[in-house]
Amino acid sequence: MSAIPGPRSATPQRPPARTPPLGRGGRVVSYLLLAVLGVLCGFAGSLIAMLWLPVGLLLALAGCGALFYGGGLLTGTRTGAALPAVAWFVSLLYVTEPRPEGDFLLGASIGGYLLLFLGALTGVLCTARPGLGGGLRPR
């Protein structure tokens, strides 16, 4: 006859605290690099999404999603995911504004609106995913 295991501890055990892969100085440099990459990803994504509408839109969203998720993974903080998302969104707002000549990069079309909405949603989801530091933790 096999022995029945006894009850486990009533208090849940916390997983060990994760340490971010970068130190403080490395995180600051990576934040600046992620912000620049967010701006570049926004400009490139607007060009690609409008050039090849169905496939280009998916490529632009995959690129921004990879940048947001990778930024959070690299720094281990929510700021690492939110900073490139904010820079991406601001750069898209810039390219939506018409120029004095009447030109614009991201037009008022279904593709432009989908890029803005789904990209912002991707940024929010990558920032709010569990496991990133920087938020309030229950005691």
UniProtKB/TrEMBL annotation:
Keyword annotations: Membrane, Transmembrane, Transmembrane helix
Spell out the InterPro entries in the cross-references.
Answer: DUF6113
Keyword Chloroplast found: no
Query: Positions of the region Disordered?
Result: 1-22
Q: Does the keyword Transmembrane apply?
A: yes
Q: Which domain of life is it from?
A: Bacteria
Please identify the protein, giving its name as recorded. DUF6113 family protein
Species: Streptacidiphilus monticola
